[in-house]
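Example for tutorial group B:
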């Protein structure tokens, strides 16, 4: 089911969400589009994606994320700062210990949909994304 642009819709966390008012063409505001593009840009990095996929299992400390993602601890910390600045992950502090978690159900849903899409591509279209990578987009 597709909702009308600007319509209030349920949030995966249970709250009602009203997106910014659409423009004359039904698109979100320039600021919302820019923020979305920034988030998608962050998700385009395989190291950051491995961190997020590791967090699907629940909160983890930097050292655990570093080990699971294959990134150095400093690269992991840098990636987490970027993801946190765009509200994709959140930090949870208990005393001197900090762990990171997915920021909300939207992020979890997005990752799960992405995984389902990759699985669909392999099963239905018989395309292995690793064997047949897409050509990079051309920029004018």
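The residue assignment follows.
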């Amino acid at each position: 089911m597709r909702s009308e642009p600007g319509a209030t819709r349920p949030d995966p966390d249970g709250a009602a969400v009203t997106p910014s008012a659409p423009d004359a063409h039904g698109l979100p505001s320039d600021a919302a589009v820019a923020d979305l593009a920034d988030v998608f840009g962050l998700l385009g990095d395989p190291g950051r994606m491995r961190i997020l996929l590791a967090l699907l299992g629940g909160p983890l400390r930097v050292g655990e994320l570093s080990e699971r993602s294959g990134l150095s601890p400093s690269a992991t910390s840098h990636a987490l700062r970027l993801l946190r600045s765009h509200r994709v992950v959140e930090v949870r502090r208990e005393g001197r210990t900090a762990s990171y978690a997915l920021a909300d159900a939207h992020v979890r849903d997005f990752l799960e949909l992405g995984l389902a899409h990759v699985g669909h591509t392999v099963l239905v279209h018989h395309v292995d994304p690793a064997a047949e990578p897409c050509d990079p987009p051309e920029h004018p």
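The helical segments are 30-43, 46-55, 62-69, 73-85, 105-125. Compare this with the pattern of hydrophobic and polar residues in the output above.
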